[in-house]
Amino acid sequence: MSGLREVYNTQTGSMTKLYKFVFFLIVFLLNFMPVSAQKPQDKKIEMVAAGQTFAEVFRSIRKQTLLNFHYNEEDFNINETLKEPLINVTVEGAMKRIFAGKAVIWSYKDSLNVIIERSNVVQPANIMQEKPSRSKPPDSIPSKKLSGRVMNADGTAIPGATVSLRKEKVAASATGYFSFKTVPGNDTLQVSSIGYASKLVSIPTGQIYSRIILNTLPEELPGVDINVLTGYQNISRKTTTGSVATINNRRFNEQAGTDVLSRLPYIASGLTTIPPHLKPTGNRFLVRGLSTFSGPTPPLIILDDFQFNDDPRNINPNDVENVTILKDAAATSIWGARAGNGVIVINTKKGRFNQPFNVTLSTNVTVTKRPDLFSLKLMPASDMIDVETQLFKDKFYDARIPFPAYASLTPAVSILLMEREGKISGPEAKAQLDQLRNRDVRNDFNRYFYQDAVNQQYAINVSQGTEDHAWRFSGGFDNNENELKENYKRYTMRFSNIYKVGKLDFTSNVFFTQSDSKSGAPAFGSFRADQLPIYTAFLDKDGQQIPLYTYNSYREGFIDTLGGDKLQNWLYYPLEDYKHVIYRTNIQEINTELGLKYWLTNELTLSAKYRFQNQRTENSLHQDKHSYYTRDMINRFSLIDYSRNTIKYMVPPGGILDIMNINQLSRDARGQVDFNKTFGKHNIAAITGGQISEVLTKENSSRSYGFDEEIYSNAGVDFMNPYPHLITGTEERIPGTSLLNKTNIRFVSIYANAAYTFIDKYTFSISGRRDATNTFGMKTNEKWKPLWSSGFSWLVLNEPDHRWLSYLKWRFSYGQNGNVDPRKVAITTIRYEGQNAALNSPYARIENFFDSELRWEQVSMLNTGIDFSLKNNRLFGSFEFYRKWMRDLYGESRIDPTAGQGDLATKNIGKMAGNGVDIVLSSINIKGKVKWCSDLIVNMHQDKIIKLKDNGKLDPASITGGMAVGREGYPAYAYFAYPSAGLDPAYGDPRGYLNGVPSKNYSLILGSGTKLNELVYIGRMLPKWSGSLSNSISWNHFTLTVRIAYKLGYYFRKESINYESLSYLMVGHADYSKRWQRPGDERTTTVPSMKFAVQDRDRFNMLNSDQAAKGDHIRLENLNLNYQIIRPRLFGSSFGKIEAYVIGNNLGILWRANKDKIDPESLSIRISPSITFGANFTFSKK
Fold first, then answer.
1. CB atoms < 10 A from the CB of 68, how many?
2. How far apart are the first and last CA of the chain?
3. Contact assessment for residue 333 and residue 788, using Cβ atoms and an 8 Å cutoff
4. What pTM was computed for the model?
5. Where are the beta strands (DSSP E) in 709-783?
6. Alpha-carbon distance values, 1087 to 716, 891, 987, 989 (Å)
7. Which residues lie across from 771 on neighbouring strands?
8. Domain residues of the chain, as ranges?
9. Fewest beta carbons less than 10 Å away: which of 13, 148, 333, 983?
10. Taking a C-beta distance cutoff of 8 angstroms, is the pair 81, 47 a contact?
11. CATH of span 39-138
């Protein structure tokens, strides 16, 4: 009981910490939010002393009002002094007195920012006296000086914009201002900035000020320069030599979903998913195909510059700004031995400098149709009863009938037995069986268990930025109830800050997530077929619940009388039991990032970053005293003394509580030097740094009996001594789970990356990284073998007004990176499994054996591609070709069994090669009031095993299972099958070949009778081609986007009838109705006749070539109808934007290659469509 109290105290402590954290965030947020709705011009200034310069005056006003003043020093003389003090005046009054008689105007951008600019209007009533200064008064403007400001269409400054005048270039300040000392008359400025269209601005003679507006361009255009985030640096796409795919915020939000990763398929080139027939676990994504045999396949996930080790579902999609996928070695090698599967960089939204107070509210509701259980290819009840009747006539069940204690019978077999024993007549038996034939338990599941799933999502984002401080707060709440009434709630909060103090930048990001889930009703597939016959009913005609006797092995009539009234009710009621079995999961994660950057010069910076990430997962399974499992455990270990009419419970009455806690702690520290300098026609951008990382995972689990939730107590149990099973008499120990586990993975890395650009056309890049970890072998860590890459790009053409081709860029790269499986450790390790009940001492097993040669998997890649755009950007995109070489791939290798390690061990066993093509084409088909745009994504990838350590020891049985690691010269996921000779015309048996002759000797065919080269190679099991076609039509405020997805060039193994499983486990299949029944049927079917107890017959039927089917298909993946209004005025409030949308997902298959109407993306239940209704409201105070 003390253990339970400790757990309870831990939970209470966690909640206390949560409350403190929430309170801290609210207080912190309030410190930075406006405290009143007072207009900035009406704020009071208590006192500003005379004699101060204008710069000092503005600093004094800022301290009193929190207002920030933005100006260009060329517009007025900041050394001019205040002649008379400002006492108890408003800000507006002070501004009039300060700039009296000056050609200056000012405006209030929002509640915290004042913009001061030059004007042709002179303010009246000069009350100031100028202090002698070297600067000329602003009223006397030299005709050869030019200043100005660069802004976007919303009037927001564009800091860092490049303004060129002949050979001179300047960068706009943080508030968008620029100036030139001398400007000849009638000249032209060229203005450009990342993400905006370049602009030529004419400057007539005598003009002294210019306000320049840049228009944004779609980020998809190759000529539009955007920042590419790698996790270590932001680089210009214009100078990128590697292969990257950027998903902007608009494209990311065309999908709906609670988690980030579910939105990524089909919207980025190079990214595919593993088909479900290969039974992937966890993350299904592949970047440019398979890079391993048995190592991890998911790409590395980076969240805001650091590897994200926790559950990706903890990331709120509303916090995501954009996603970048790094595909080739030049892009990924900076991540070294963990980037062999590609890298997904998730960049969250952050505050921006000089931005008004901004609030965005988002909400959406997604409704997913309940699963179509009747899409399952199951045998109907009538066919199942026919099979049971035939088996009963063949005396198949006779061995079970004498043992009612552990051999339950289905309702149909029980009826047949009562007829044989004379308890009911033949017509009565037929009537009862006919009643069962009209039932289908799926109707009861639809009526009592399944429902339409509803997901609700709410989010708020608040942000603001001044000249030296930018912040953003976001909060989110998700409330999901799935088709089985399982509830999932998630709370997220994120707060980011950026401070500028002189040459020092300080950043902080705090991210908190809590999710709670609670189990619901049992799924249809959670029952074994022999536990739940297809004709089962949950309620009788009077509405009373019917016990499911087939759920356990005890027959009706036996357990009804067993033990008299002393035992717990031993019946299972499907409609009631799940209400007493509650599985809960609570996840709390806090992620804190701190960063410092010091600007030694404008070109050289030093930075340090630290990330602390802690995820605590608490799982509990409470099966209360009314649950079947608990009642079964109590009864099973009960000791009945019939002579004394007493009973002793070795498992105490009460509930059973299983607890498993996982605590994962990640720490990262990084130091880095950045250099970026342009001198003449040359530019050098380089970084170098080092990083240390640690991931510490602790697990503990326990079980408590006699649990009482109200008082949170339990009872003691004897786990050491065995007790007789009440029915079988077999000596058994009471199950007890107790586990403590701890793993610690450490990484040390050094890295460098540099790019040299000449005349903005030619870029050469090189990078290198060295990794060491406590999971590699000793010899591996001693070798100085850095992973590296190099690349080159040539901007062939960038002329928007060229006759037909406006942009052309060629890229080439080659490099190496790696892939690490933290589960594969090179040193000898043991894992403690818990307590040995018999010895009352801990026991352990050897988990990993010493292997000094074990090393990371190495992936080399060559990539070349072109980016292009035709005139007016009517057609643009990219073509890329790549080759991959993978070596030292993980796999199971045979070893000497006498060494005490078994006969298999994980080794670096093979090599593989691959190549592919990524194509992205975008077109503007119609441009005008109605705009029609198209986007085509084409991914092609194929791989081949080059070398396999045990290739000479392969046999047909080892490569026909459909898993990775096949044969040299074939794909990793190669589909091999035994050749089929068709069905036997006389008996309907499947036939194979022995020595080229049709045969039914299945054991020999599956054994030594088939040589490796006699197998049929069907094809690859991973799609060779995949991608999507999107069409968007815009009119007025409406945009309709339709996305079609496709996968081509692959095969899968169909499911079919297995008569052995049918007879013993009641696992049927709809193919039963297509079975061979009479001579001649072999010409129209490949389903064998029904025969039982023929050795290896069913196994050969499943592994022969008749079960192969093409997986090629095209589906309607996504539909999005969007309505937007920019700056509407509703209800007296000024909104920045109002957006409403409707999204449909998984809308069905348009075409499939297989004739069996099987959906290759769902071999069981048909994928359910969903529809989302949502809206976003953005309010911005200008």
1. 22
2. 61
3. yes
4. 0.82
5. 713-715, 723-724, 731-732, 738-758, 762-773
6. 56, 36, 12, 9
7. 749
8. 39-138, 374-438+522-546
9. 13
10. no
11. 3.55.50.30
